């Protein structure tokens, strides 16, 4: 490109921006076209949360604005043509449902009924089939269209007017819940699509696994390789599905303070995650049988944690606001129980202040309180925080947990590994990653990891308080104890249970706290 070509290109970009319809119209066009936020976002090369912003008040700029306007104009033209066709067909068939359709359109302006959770109910600009009865519904609850008033679900297929054979309409389509159940041998979904006509968020996962297995003709290894490769984008689509109906949108690419940026390309940022790596210095006299317990789904459970919603804001002072979450510069308290319990901030060589996450700070504050009294409160110097909620990823976590439980009950190792890859890679690629461009929240990544470490620490405290001898605490999922641990922790494969990873003897005649005898 010559210098003049570059200048011409620059001049072409200068001028009035292409017009966009109002925010409500943008959303209405997408919903009438039966397009999800994830589908439109992928077509435009943005994240679903960015698209949510465009449908609630913000405007895109530059080239993506032109693309978005082109999409909306195309949807408007296509939907207008379809509406004319349906109206003509209805008039020819003299169907008495036109007034009902018009009344439904007016009903879209009604507000949520009293008592309904605003975080669960989403008003639809265009009616969708109710998951309970198949009739048009104007509300979406927890991501699924359904009637809020039970009286609206009284219609039966026999009462539904038959559509004209020459003019099929949206009402003539088979509702999702009325579709035939998938065959036991696998899915017949089209190739290349991960999620097919689910009955719920957890079914998204099973449908994807069964489709991959069917596509590779029962070859579990080949299907597993494909599922693991697309675990990150599939996790993001699942997150988008479970966020439907939420009353707030998270910022996927907020401004990030320097402490959360890598110091070098292969280095780390300044956040300390408090990862435990502790071995008891001395054991009681004699030989002991030590059980290494494996904590199931550590990162999955850690998705329930206080996450900041918006951009982090700086503050100073020693006060902690439990309505906010983020990262904090603290001077940790002295720890005098290292002989029996690990330090809550992990093994750290350098004294003085350090940046910790919300779960670490809350753990220290909890341990310094009157219930435990194990240490002094930490000294808070400054913080980067935002308004927070503990339930931001709760629907996402439950969908993954339900899919995991079903896979274990069915002996479905393929789906089980797929679920594990989805949540573990989802957490690990929130930071500066080339594998996940839709979500850039290194603060979330550190917080979720630290929550997993804090959860393990609390299990160590629970074992200690119950009279067990805690021998080791490692990472997020490894706890070694001496004693009758089954009276403290239930055994099994659920995320609320533990399983035995190893057993060995330690004590007299072995290296203190770490030796083993075969």
- How would you describe the oligomerization state of the chains in this entry? single chain
Question: Please, how many helices?
Answer: 14
Order of helices and strands: HHHHHHEEEHHHEEEHEEEEHEHHHEEE
Radius of gyration: 28 Å
Considering DSSP H and I runs of 4 or more, what fraction of the residues is helical?
Answer: 25-40%
| Biggest β-sheet description | 6 strands, mixed
- N-end to C-end Cα span: 72 Å
Alpha-beta content class: alpha+beta
What is the molecular shape? globular
Mean pLDDT: 80
Textual characterization of the structure:
With 518 residues, the chain is of the alpha+beta class. It is 36% helix and 16% strand. The chain has helices at residues 3-13, 23-32, 37-44, 48-54, 62-93, 98-106, 201-215, 220-229, 231-242, 298-302, 358-367, 394-410, 413-428, 442-465; strands at 121-129, 136-141, 144-145, 271-272, 277-279, 287-295, 307-308, 313-316, 324-331, 354-357, 379-389, 469-474, 478-482, 498-507. The strands form three sheets. Strands 4, 7, 8, 9, 10 and 11 form a six-stranded mixed beta sheet that branches. The chain has a five-stranded antiparallel beta sheet with strand order 5-12-13-6-14, covered by helices on one side. The chain has a three-stranded antiparallel beta sheet with strand order 1-2-3. Strand 12 and strand 13 form a beta hairpin. Helix 9 crosses helix 13. The longest helix has 32 residues, at 62-93. The protein is globular, with a radius of gyration of 28 Å.
């Amino acid at each position: 490109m010559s210098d003049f070509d570059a200048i011409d290109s620059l001049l072409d970009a200068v001028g009035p921006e292409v017009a966009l319809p109002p925010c409500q119209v943008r959303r209405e066009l997408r919903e009438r076209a039966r397009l999800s936020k994830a589908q439109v976002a992928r077509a435009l090369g943005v994240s679903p949360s960015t698209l949510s912003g465009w449908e609630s008040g913000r405007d895109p700029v530059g080239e993506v604005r032109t693309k978005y306007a082109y999409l909306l104009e195309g949807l408007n033209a296509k939907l207008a043509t379809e509406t004319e066709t349906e109206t003509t067909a209805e008039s020819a068939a003299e169907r008495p449902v036109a007034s009902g359709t018009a009344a439904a359109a007016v009903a879209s302006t009604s507000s949520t009924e009293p008592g309904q959770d605003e975080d669960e109910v989403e008003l639809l600009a265009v009616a969708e089939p109710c998951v309970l009865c198949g009739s048009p519904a104007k509300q979406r609850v927890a991501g699924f269209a359904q009637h809020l008033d039970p009286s609206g679900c009284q219609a039966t297929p026999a009462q539904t007017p038959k559509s004209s054979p020459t003019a099929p309409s949206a009402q003539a389509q088979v509702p999702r819940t009325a579709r035939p159940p998938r065959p036991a041998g696998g899915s017949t979904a089209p190739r290349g699509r991960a999620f097919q006509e689910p009955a719920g968020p957890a079914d998204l996962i099973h449908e994807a696994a069964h489709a991959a297995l069917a596509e590779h003709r029962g070859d579990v290894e080949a299907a597993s390789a494909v599922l693991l490769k697309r675990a990150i984008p599939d996790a993001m689509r699942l997150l988008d599905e479970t966020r439907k109906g939420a009353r707030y949108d998270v910022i996927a690419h907020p401004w990030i303070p320097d402490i959360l940026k890598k110091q070098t390309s292969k280095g780390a940022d300044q956040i300390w995650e408090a990862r435990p790596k502790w071995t008891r210095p001395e054991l009681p006299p004699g030989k002991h049988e030590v059980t290494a317990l494996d904590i199931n789904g550590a990162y999955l459970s850690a998705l329930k944690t206080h996450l900041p919603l918006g951009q982090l804001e700086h503050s100073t002072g020693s006060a902690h606001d439990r309505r906010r979450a983020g990262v904090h510069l603290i001077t940790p308290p002295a720890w005098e129980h290292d002989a029996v319990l690990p330090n809550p901030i992990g093994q750290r060589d350098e004294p003085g202040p350090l940046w910790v996450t919300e779960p670490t700070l809350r753990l220290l504050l909890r341990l310094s309180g009157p219930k435990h009294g194990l240490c002094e409160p930490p000294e808070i110097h400054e913080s980067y925080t935002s308004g927070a909620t503990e339930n931001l990823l709760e629907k996402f976590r439950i969908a993954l947990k339900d899919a995991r439980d079903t896979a274990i009950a069915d002996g479905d190792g393929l789906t089980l590994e797929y679920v594990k890859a989805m949540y573990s890679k989802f957490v690990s690629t929130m930071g500066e990653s080339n594998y996940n461009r839709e979500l850039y929240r290194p603060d979330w990544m550190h917080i979720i990891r630290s929550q997993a470490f804090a959860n393990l620490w609390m299990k160590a405290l629970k074992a200690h308080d119950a009279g067990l001898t805690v021998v080791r605490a490692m990472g997020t999922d490894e706890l070694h104890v001496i004693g009758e641990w089954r009276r403290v922790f239930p055994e099994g494969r659920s995320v609320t249970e533990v399983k035995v990873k190893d057993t060995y003897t330690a004590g007299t005649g072995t290296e203190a706290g770490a030796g083993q005898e075969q």
